[in-house]
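WARN retry 2 of 3 for item q-0093 after timeout on previous attempt; input resubmitted unchanged.
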Amino acid sequence: MKYLILLLMFFTGLGAFAQQEPPIAQFSGVIYDKDSNSVVPYVTIRNITEGKNYSANYKGYFSFVVHEGDSILFTAVGYKKLALNIPKNLTNKKFTALIKLKADNIELPTVTIFPWASIDEFNKDFLTMKFADDDLEIAKKNLSKESLRDLYMSLPRDGAEYNTNSFQYNHNKLNNSHMVYTNPLLNPLAWGALIKQITEGNKSRDKK
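OK item q-0093 returned
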C-alpha cells in the first residue's frame, strides 16, 4: 500500500511538472541593419532562458525551437544588443519576427605612437636633432644662383615667352626674305677685286 501511494504521488508530480512547462514554438526571422536595410549575417542569438546559443546564416536568416515566454538576445560586432521576448498563447505555435539591429559607434581612446623604443633613444635623437632653417635662410637658398639656374633649366616656357620667340622668328624671316646669298668664288667682279688688291700690294712692297 505504501509503495502504491508513493508511485501515485510520483506520477501526480510528474504530470503537474509537465503542465507547468511552457509550450514550444518555432521562432524564425531575418536580421537587418536598421539604417541601411541590408542583412546582417552570422548574428549570435542566445536563448537566455534556456542558456542555448544559435547563429543566423550569411543571409541573416534564423529558425529554431523556443518556449513561449523565453528571452532572446541578439548580438553582433558593431551593433547594439537587442532583447526580445517570445509572446505567449501563440495560435499556430510559430513566431516570425523581423529583427533590426542598430549600429553601435565605439569611440576608442587616443593612441599616440612614438618612433623611439625607449627614453634613452629619444634623448639621443633630441640632442643630435638639426633645427630647420628659418624663413630668411629658406629665401636665400631659393634665390641663390644655383637654384635659379636649376629653375631656368627645368621650368618650361610660358605663353608670353612662346609668343615673343614666335614674333622674333617671323620678324627675322621677313627681313631676310629679299636677301640673295651668292658664292663669291663664282663672282668675276670678286676675282677682279682680289687680283687688284694683290697687284697693289706687290707694287707697294717693290717701292719699299
